[in-house]
Every structure is written in structure tokens, then in C-alpha cells.
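Deviations from the work plan: none for this task. Representative record:
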Amino acid sequence: MTDVFVVSDSVISPLGSTSADNFMQLERSISGVRRHDNSAISPQPFYAALFTGDNFASDNPYTKFEQLLIASIKDALQNTDIVTSDEKTILIISSTKGNIGLLETEGYNHALEKRISLNTSANMVASHLNFINKPLVVCHACISGLLAIITALRLIKSGIYENAVIAGADVITKFILSGFQSFQALSPGICKPFDAERDGINLGEGAATVIVSSNKRYANNIKLRSGSVNNDANHISGPSRTGEELCLVIDKALTEAGVSAAEIDFISAHGTATIYNDEMEAQAIALAGLQNSPVNSMKAYFGHTLGAAGLLESAMTIQSMQRNTVLPSLGFTNIGVTKPINICNTLMHMSLDNCLKTASGFGGCNAAVVFSK
Amino acid sequence: MNINKYILSHCAISKNAVYKNGQKIFEKAAANPLDFLHSTYEHFNLNYPKFYKMDGLSKLGLLASDILLAGESIIKDIRPQGIGIVLSNTNSSLDMDIKYLQSLQDFASPALFVYTLPNIVIGEVCIRNGFKGENAFFIFEDFNAAFIEQYVSHLLNNNLLQICICGWVEFLKDNYKVVLYLAGKTGGPSVKLFTKETMDSIFNNEAL
């Protein structure tokens, strides 16, 4: 069976412009989430992790969304031997709403229909960075980032490509914010995943890239071992009550990786800090026999970065493994889920050989990925 | 492991007509796409009231999947985790994005917002049928049969799925087209092989 190795990773968020910068902020328990009073996005003040200032030139032919993708991919490619113009290299883009902001500012017309399509952005980014293969685009709610990683794993294991550059981004606009407000899902402060007083999510902006390869020159790197996706078949906007399906997708990922539950050293959960999501995840983690593994959620650092989240949180998981450091789950004080899972509340140095990353999203979808040394 | 994969059935809906396995089985003039989808729902007696609250993309995908699966008794012998859905289109959920943004002038509705993701149609079909297997939604400029063949073949070859509904579902303003294929591992000489050439020839049928 082909092994797939992590070549490099990048995170661009309001906290920093490389994975290492971001990780350093997280080690100091610094959050990118803060209060914003921006009537263009929301009539009420709200808490989110947003880029502020004029980092994104409006006269640039690339939108903020595309500039974020390009910057993150360039950062990830630095100091690697990955050749974008190699026919064995594929670019995979992950996003939920991409350039939806254009619909808000320009309104619908035929030219906009073409410009706003995720294909257009993916093609522009691919062409700017000299990829010769047509990019793939994954658009699958909050599991988009993990599904993009799993798609890369499968394409490489099938022998179709040797290298995959997997990049995700989303930009928070009125469209997205109003939708989460309509669900009354937003926290009035910095979110508190898995805590007894959790009261909803924060949204966040960011871009992240993970590059993987089957080339043996990377054989000493962390491996992308396995990944699985499934559906609750229960409700389009509410998670399963039992966590049974997330548990099944975790089981499948562990089986494919050949790793037992007892061997999972750390879980990077979805942890949105909504009442129902965190409860469902705790049920699933306990049901999968992972109640002792340290768990964290990165949502209180970055907010929910939507189509970037699976990639961004995988990149931070990879950084954790490289440093043998588990980050505390920021915002967590007292357990607020009915299963006593092991939410990490202090920085821990420990050997991290096998780590699990999970995500769940609207439409009832669940995904799990295993990284190993 | 490479094994033979087959197209057990296929269903297409476009231009006020419904096709099952290449045969036109329903046609009706309609003032707009949603009118036609409602006529189709009534014609086939689908009896699933949730249909009415869905957006156009989900209605289209749900109708096509119901018609695709009608009479496919093989589905009943497969456990829910063995049945997956892999879909694609070019405009994501733009039809609903436009409607949601218009509605914001009054108030933001969660019932509309949830449909501003293209994978919701997959969720609706999973809920309707109790399917719990692999899911994926990809965005392409045009129907990419070669990729669908590669991706779904990987799922079937590696026993990640026993059967997969796959294809294309697009709904934007006055244009809509869905072509779904039921891909499985059991078939015989009379059943079409699951290949990009076969998918393309079905997809590019000029009546659609």
C-alpha cells in the first residue's frame, strides 16, 4: 500500500502568517477572536477572528479569498521540492462560500455568475502558481477541508498523482454572519468549546494549506494514514443525538490506518462550542473508546474558519506532533458534555505518534483523518 | 483492486422531461423549473411532504434519486454505511444564495440559509433513504466523468462502498439538469459498464 507523507503546511490567520507563527501564539493562549463593530457586516457588535486593516488591495485582480489562497500555498511551497508544473502534482481547493461577497456588492448578473464560481477562483490560483493540472474543488460545508485531504489521499493511493497541494479559505461577510446569527448560533463572547457554559460559535477568517506526497524522499515525515466520510441521515442542520455516525467514521479511519483507539495520543475535535455539536462529539468520542485521549478544539483561537477549518486544524495538529505538544482547549474550564471525555486545559508535552482530526457539518456530514509518525 | 463496476440504472431530468435508463417517462410544459418539479413530484406520487420546504437543487436531486432507485431492490440488501453519494455541479448553491441574500432585506431565515451549501442535497437524499455511507460534493466547470469514475471506483474497489449514487445536479434560475448514475459491483453482460465514456454518452444525450 502506498504511504502518503506530509511535506509541509501553512496557516494564515489574524494570529499569524505561517504555521509556526500561529502555533507560537496558541502556545501563549492568545486568541484571534475579538469584538467587532462593523455595520457593513452586522447591525450588532459580534465576536469573530477577522483580518483587519488593508492587507488585501482592492485593485488586485485577485479577490481577498484568492489572495489568501495564493499566500498560503506560496508559504507552504517554500523550502519544498514540490514542483507545481509537474503533471504528477494536483491542486485541491476547499471552500464553502468562496467569493460570496461579490454577490453582496455587485448583485447577480451573467458575468458575476462566472466570476463567483469556485472554479474560476481555483483556475486563477492554479494558473498564477503554474499548476498544469486542472485544480479540483471540494465544497462540502464544514467538512470541506478534511474531505479535500481525504480526496488527496485517495488520488495518491490510486496512483493518479504523486503530490497534492490542498488549500482552503473562507472570508466572513454579511451573508455568512447573518446566516449563523439567524440560527442563533453565535457566542456573545469568545467561544467555550465543551465547557458547561458554552454558548455558541465564533466565526473566523483564514487560509491553510497542507502538501502531501507519496515520494519516498519525505518518508521520515508525518504520514497521512487514513480518512473516512459519512452521513448521519438524520437532519440537515442538527447533529445526530447519539454520535453513532461520527463514531463509525472514526472507527473506519482507525481501521484503515491500522491504529487502535488506545493508540490515539490526541484528538483535534471539531468543537464548535454549540450545545448540540459538542455533546454529539463527546458521545462519539466515548463510543469510539477514545474517552482517555486528550481532546482539544481550536475554535476559541481561530473561530470557525469554515472551508479552511479542516486544513487549518490539521496543520496545527501536524505542528503539535512535530513539537510533541498538545495545546490547551482555550475557553474550557468545566466539562459541559454528558460523557467524561478528556478535554485538555493545559499545555502538555508528550509523545504524539497517532493523532485524529474530526469534523462535522450541515447536511449531516462527518469526516475523520488519522496522522501518524 | 480493480473489479468491474456497472451502471445499474440512470436517471436524468432536464427541459421539462424525466428520463429513466434512457427512456422518457414523463414530460409536461411548465411556467418555470419549480412548477415542473412539483408536477413531477405529483406525477410519481412521491408522498414526502418535506419536499416542499427544500430549495430547487435539493428538490431536483431528491426527485432524480427517487426515480433512479425505484425498483432497485438491491438497495434493500445493503447496509446504510455501504451506500454513498458523490455529486458535482458548476454553480454550487448560487440559486439559493441569490434568494437568501434577497430575503435578508426582511430578515435572515435559517430555513433558507441552510440550503446555501451544495452538499445539502446529499443530506436530503441520505435522510430520505437512510443512507449513511461516503459523501462528496465537487465543483467542476463541466461534468467531469473521468474524475467521477476515478473517485467512485476507488470507493467501490476498496469496499468503502457497495453502491454509489453519483453524477451531476445543477439548478440556477431557469436552467436545471440532473443526471444520476447508480454505480455498483454486480452486473452482467447486459448491464452497462461504469466508465467515463458511458457516463458521458448518457450525459450528452442531446435531448437533455
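The radius of gyration of chain A is 19 Å.
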